[in-house]
Amino acid sequence: MKERIILGIDPGTTVMGYGLIKVNGNDPELIVMGVLLLSKEKDHYLKLRRIFERVLGLIEQYHPDELAIEAPFFGKNVQSMLKLGRAQGVAMAAALYREIPITEYAPLKIKMSITGNGKATKEQVADMLQRYLKIPQDKMISPLDATDGLAAAVCHFFQTNRPQSEKKYNSWQDYISQHPDAVKKR
Prior knowledge:
By secondary structure, the chain is an alpha/beta fold. The protein has one domain: Nucleotidyltransferase, domain 5 (2-Layer Sandwich). The chain has 6 helices and 5 strands. Strand 1 and strand 2 form a beta hairpin. The protein is globular. About 5% of the residues have low confidence.
């Protein structure tokens, strides 16, 4: 498999988290993770512009091959959901502008992929990523939106990276037919 770079984004209008990983075969490694802080910006449209510019800047600096982005979750506050959807859309527009393929993942799917628990906390996700990618403590960033963006990238790696030697089986019968010595005959 050729080397590829995955940009992961946790969209938000107060804090946008991002993480980039480089994948060589089956070995992902951290390139960078960070946050875009937008809380001081009062105008919602200027926040959207800053999101677009930051994502475009990341794309121009690191040249990712793919974008993995967390899908907005359905909450009770419709206004918050609309703002979050706009933030996600602007980040996606920046990727589309540079012709980068996009994959959306539900928050539950990302957490399940990283921790094995769809209801994991941000702290649990960050801890698993730190261990998996061997990130030194001094490189861990607060707020944890950075590791949420990184989690989207790693989730995408897990969903799309299949070792060349891995065989796919459609059924137990298929497996048995390809591995006759693995099954004891009675």
